[in-house]
Amino acid sequence: MSQTTRDGFGSRFGVLVAVAGSAVGLGNLWRFPYMVGNNGGAAFILLYLFFVILLCLPIMFSEFVIGRRAQANVFGAVNSIAPKSGWLSIGIISVVASISIMSFYSVVGGWTLEYVFKSFSPSFLTSNSDSLSDQFSNFSQRGLLPVIMHLLFLLISALIVVAGVKNGIEKYSKILMPMLFVLVILLAIRSLTLPGASEGVKFLLYPDFSKITSQTVLAALGQAFFSLSLGMGCIITYGSYVNKKENLFKISFMSAIADTGFAIIAGLAVVPAVFAFGISPDQGPSLVFITLPQIFAQLPFGNIIAISFFFILLIAALTSSISLLEVVVAYFTEELKISRKNSVIITFIIIGFFGTLSSLSIGPLKNILLFNKTFFDLFDYTSSNILLPIGGLLVVLFVGWKMKKEDVFDELSSGGSISLNKKIFGAILFVIKFMAPIAISIVLLNSIGIIKLF
Ligand code: PFF
Asked: Rounded to whole angstroms, how far apart are CA atoms 98 and 106?
């Protein structure tokens, strides 16, 4: 494949915003607050931060190294470094995980879209949590409307992906991500100053380690992977569009800081308000859709703020969903030689179908359980807690044990244009080769009960 025909990012800011755009999404604003709520607060956050620093950063370096070295989609990348080997399973996991994540992500994207429309109605905002909770269940359990919203969300993502990397993904991310950041900070300030918010702050700050179980640890690991878009080739794919001179450390650190900062601020915007309004923090997926409208109801120009918030949340969801779609589309176009447009259509049909199942499983199909989970929960649990950690494990093993050390060094030092101390490189390689694989394996084995450590 000739490099000149591949699309790519136009500038450093563009790469950064696109990677951060992929990382920052529903995972931060929708999933993180309710995971914190379901898993006991501060102890979960500490574990999450521990995994981000110890595991996610080295995995992010590794994904960038593979993608930029090979300049190809996940399958093509692995195949060019280790042709026709078992390592191609990284490609399979990536495509399956991406479809599985999109099958619930685009449903929540659809809810967000509906909430943008809802925010226009003056009667939508109320300080009554029961009424907000009813509004949410009435909508999400209604068969057809959430399915239509899911398909609409998926369609918008697909149209951006057809437009390509520079003119689609990069252009939109640049403008909207900074706006979202400002809005979430304002919400956090309001939430923290509500009467009764201090209980929520305590919940976020004082860890109760007795709440930690093997499932909490797995959930924190899964959330860290999910939030940073790791373990499913997304960063490999984006890495393949990154200019050879770009400093991979800088991009990784800055994206991780932006993503973690966002998650924490989202936690501060949601959790204190949850306590102030007397809502139970373990509501699950509906949490932000019930809590935030209550904050908006208490603000001047609440409707305008609600419209802006859900609109920008929608954009954050889109910048992530396009990165998820890109993994599948890049595979179809480069490996199966299908045109970009047709690849997007096929992807739309597959995710449209599974997403519909997942959406209906909140309402009409809620009694159909597989492994004791609804379709929605099954797609979420399997991708975040199983596929992403296994994908991440394979990625670090691949870079640590299969790739040539000189090639890894060459990528991390951007062809020698960044001075990378040999000792620091040795330490990074040690984490990639030993620490990260061992840590991920322990968490996975512990969660299925093969070993019992915590
Ligand atoms: N990181 C995104 C979020 O937090 O919403 C979700 C996501 C995007 C997960 C891309 C995985 C991925 F490859």
From this structure: 11
Which tokens go with 372? 């004791």
- CATH number for 259: 1.20.1740.10
Q: Is residue 397 part of a domain?
A: yes
pLDDT in tens, 325-350: 989 998 999 889 999 999 999 999 99
Cβ(225)–Cβ(21) below 8 Å: no
Q: Which of 6-10, 95-99, 299-303 has the highest mean pLDDT?
A: 95-99
C-alpha R_g of the chain? 21
Number of domains in the chain: 1
The dihedral of CA 440, 385, 411, 13: what is its sign?
A: negative
* 453 within domain boundaries: no
Residue 418 structure tokens: 């960044």
Q: How confident is the model at residue 410 (pLDDT cuts 50, 70, 90)?
A: very high
Residue 59 near ligand 1, beta carbon < 6 Å: no
Structure tokens at 26: 């529903």
Which domain covers residue 60, as residue numbers?
Answer: 3-447
For the Cβ of 21 lying below 6 angstroms from any atom of ligand 1, the answer is: no
- Nearest CA residue ID for atom 11, ligand 1: 229
Q: Decide if 454 is inside a domain.
A: no
User: Ligand 1: which of 99, 101, 238 to mutate, most ligand atoms within 8 Å of CB?
Assistant: 101
Helix locations, 211-336, DSSP H: 214-227, 234-239, 248-276, 287-297, 302-334
253 is a domain residue:
yes
